[in-house]
Amino acid sequence: MKVKVCGTTSVADAVLAAQAGADALGFIFAPVSRRLVTAQVAREAGIAAGPTVARVGVFLNQGLDEVLRTAEAARVSAVQVHGSLPGLYVRQLAAYYPVLRVVRPDELTQAAAEWRDHPGVTLMLDAPEPGGGVPLDWAALRADFPAGAWLAGGLGAGNVAQAIGALNPAGVDAVSRLEHLPGRKDPEAVRTFVGAARVAAGTGYPQ
Ligand SMILES: O=C(O)c1ccccc1NCC(=O)[C@H](O)[C@H](O)COP(=O)(O)O
């Protein structure tokens, strides 16, 4: 199971997450976000994190050209797309990058059917407000949660084990509960989140 730490806005926070054992860092390029980062900072932070850590560019309802230009400038290794987006847009993006397609609970069933056979597109289930820190009702989603999908929405050290136990996601992602302030990581929260996720997924390192 993969662990992604989202909303990275500095080299120091990238190094922190990498040293905590994160598999992936999220860099948010959606102008509405309080965690907005420039492509240049994302690029430097990605280099500082090292080659084994995936670098995910995060976008919300942005045009294909803008996404591709920003992703290239930031040297990300994957893109995560939120919002109301046609299937064709996602397919075109997947020709360039592995795609995390974010969906809300009410979109999950249709999206699972649509993307089941596309190897370049992975679903991520998130709360309706991205970066809002609100957990989903995991028990209610158990029947519909597709194998291979990722989970986000209000995850932190205190609840990630319960979420993994309920849905067995292929990856988990968080931001709000890992911060002092929007865009500023809380080192202890990052370390305990990654550690708790690893232990719950059975990939914890012996103490
Ligand atoms: O976090 C944001 O500010 C944001 C804004 C616009 C689009 C996406 C955004 N975040 C994407 C993420 O991957 C978050 O980690 C995910 O939504 C979970 O957030 P949280 O519930 O705060 O853990």
How is this structure best described in words?
The chain has one domain: TIM Barrel. The mean pLDDT is about 95. It has helices spanning about 10-20, 40-50, 65-75, 85-95, 110-115, 140, 160-165, 185-200, and strands at about 1-5, 25-30, 55-60, 80, 100-105, 120-125, 150, 170-175, 180, 185. Helix 1 (about 10-20) runs parallel beside helix 2 (about 40-50), helix 1 (about 10-20) packs parallel to helix 8 (about 185-200) and helix 7 runs parallel beside helix 8 (about 185-200). Strand 7, helix 7 (about 160-165) and strand 8 (about 170-175) form a beta-alpha-beta unit. The chain is of the alpha/beta class and about 210 residues long. The ligand O=C(O)c1ccccc1NCC(=O)[C@H](O)[C@H](O)COP(=O)(O)O binds near residues 58, 126 and 132. One of its GO terms (molecular function) is isomerase activity.
Q: Which molecules other than protein and nucleic acid are bound?
A: the ligand O=C(O)c1ccccc1NCC(=O)[C@H](O)[C@H](O)COP(=O)(O)O
Amount of beta strand: 15-25%
Strand order of the largest sheet: 1-2-3-4-5-6-7-8
Q: Write down the CATH class.
A: Alpha Beta
Mind telling me which CATH architecture this is? Alpha-Beta Barrel
Global shape: globular
User: Helix tally?
Assistant: 8
CATH topology: TIM Barrel
Low-confidence stretches: none
User: In whole angstroms, how far apart are the ends?
Assistant: 19 Å
Largest sheet: 8 strands, parallel, barrel
- CATH homologous superfamily assignment: Aldolase class I
Fraction in helix:
25-40%
Helical/strand content category: alpha/beta
Pathway: Amino-acid biosynthesis; L-tryptophan biosynthesis; L-tryptophan from chorismate: step 3/5
EC number: 5.3.1.24
GO molecular function: isomerase activity
Family: Belongs to the TrpF family.
